[in-house]
Amino acid sequence: MLGIFKRLMGALSCDIGIDLGTANTLVFIKGQGVVIREPSVVAMQQGTKKILAVGAEAKRMLGRTPGNIVAVRPMKSGVIADFEITEAMIRYFISKARNHKMMQFLRPRVVIATPSEITEVERRAVKEAATHAGARDVTLIEEPMAAAIGVGLPVEEPAGNLIVDIGGGTCEVALISLAGIAQAKSVRVGGDTMDDCIMNYMRRVYNLLIGERMAEDIKVSIGSAYPLKDEMSMEVRGRDLVAGLPKTLLVGSEEIREALKDPVTAIVDAVRAILNEAKPELASDLVDRGIVLSGGSALLRGLDRLIAAQTGLPVIVADDPLSGVANGTGRVLDELDFYKAHTIQPD
Fold first, then answer.
1. Interstrand relation of 137-142 and 51-54 (parallel, antiparallel or unpaired)
2. Average pLDDT of every residue of the chain
3. Which of 101, 150, 215, 255 could disulfide-link to 327, CB 3.0 to 4.6 Å?
4. Handedness of CA 296, 333, 143, 103 (dihedral sign)
5. In the chain, how long is the greatest CA-to-CA distance?
6. How many angstroms separate the CA atoms of 73 and 214, rounded?
7. Whether residue 185 has pLDDT greater than 80
8. What pLDDT sits at residue 4?
9. DSSP 207-246
10. Which CATH number fits the domain 159-189+263-321, given the four candidates 3.40.50.150, 3.40.50.10470, 3.10.310.10, 3.30.420.40?
């Protein structure tokens, strides 16, 4: 009788997979795919814990809020920087997902992807935040494993699969075989670091102060990791630090590539470090299988070509790198017992 009740609960519940990213949060609903894709930003009243907006609405406020409103990112480098605000954000996304399926009376099972080098304290913080937000059962899976599953790598096979998942706050590199991680490296470098480097470059070279959104626009529009066949340029708007007035200037892709040199080098070094530590049998598999890039920052122009040039291995950008981790949490929901037995670390 208890087994029938559990199966009935499973059939009716709104099981959710969450890619809790530094820059964006994606929510996967079992049977529906990725239904929510919003920035990991919370707007709140200054000096209080009153939440005014979450997600896309809150991001629009970044850099534009009056003195009594502050827009913050509660996730820093892939981990929780502010527990209470993160809990409110998770509650918002879980509530929105449950509304999407109109099954608000059942507490969902939730699978959350976390960085591979997260500490036990950080793991407990994530689980407690999701439980307080309304989850009845919380399972954590390492981000690179979720990404590998989500982009369709045959992780169960006895052969090496190398995934490089580059998000907003972290770059996760993992060599996977037999549904387990043989080697992994996490560096706190990602899209946010790239944005910071662009802002610092504009300040240092041009005495121009630009905001996060402008830096991200520059990265997306003309950013690159490898020389382009046709170099590009764009107008950049900011505030002149000398005159104190608004200013517009033209910036080229060669300059932005120079600005991004440090974070790009850190990503390449992380990949090379894993290859240097890999067992010969697993390393030899990569000659044919190559390296797969996932995550939003994998879309940086020429990053695949640079890694290929530095490693001598074929490099492929996943078909949908932005959704890789979220899709992976969804596949884990479909086969939760298998992944709990073979892949997911016990609490």
1. unpaired
2. 88
3. 150
4. positive
5. 76
6. 17
7. yes
8. 46
9. -EE--HHHHHHHHHHH-BSS--SS--EEEEEEEETTT-SE
10. 3.30.420.40
